[in-house]
Each structure stands twice: as structure tokens, then as C-alpha cells.
Design a protein that fits this description.
mainly alpha; about 5% strand
């Protein structure tokens, strides 16, 4: 078996790229983003997002906990 190691320089913000693409898709499909992840919230705070988003409510957090269990 041959494995090739891929190295990504620190200048590449992989998390930011993933968040941006997810947000682009959310805007394209008309979904409202509710950022409970600090990485997503940080991206929204730093960039001009064209889609719809709102702050999470306690009801959002409760729903998410019910879906995922106590892992959050």
C-alpha cells in the first residue's frame, strides 16, 4: 500500500474554505443559517455574507442537544 502525504501550508484556512462553501450553498438554496459553531460565527462576523442568518436561541440549542445527545 502506498500513502502519499499531503501538506497544506498554514496560509490556507481550510476551515474557512469549508465554512464559506457551506454558506454559499445555504444562500443558494434559501436556507437560514443559525451559527452554533464558533468557527461559522467567526466567519460570519468577519465577512459580508449575502444569505440569511440569525443568532441561535435557547430553543435552537435545546433542539440541537436533543438531536445530538449531550455531546455538545
Amino acid at each position: 500500500m502506498y500513502k502519499r502525504k499531503s501538506e497544506i501550508g498554514r496560509e490556507v484556512d481550510l476551515a474557512g474554505v469549508l465554512v464559506e462553501q457551506a454558506l454559499v450553498e445555504s444562500a443558494r438554496t434559501g436556507k437560514t443559517v443559525v451559527p452554533v459553531c464558533p468557527v461559522v460565527r467567526g466567519w460570519l462576523d468577519k465577512h459580508d455574507y449575502e444569505g440569511t442568518w440569525r443568532h441561535p436561541t435557547q430553543a435552537d440549542i435545546d433542539w440541537l442537544r436533543a438531536q445530538l445527545g449531550s455531546g455538545i
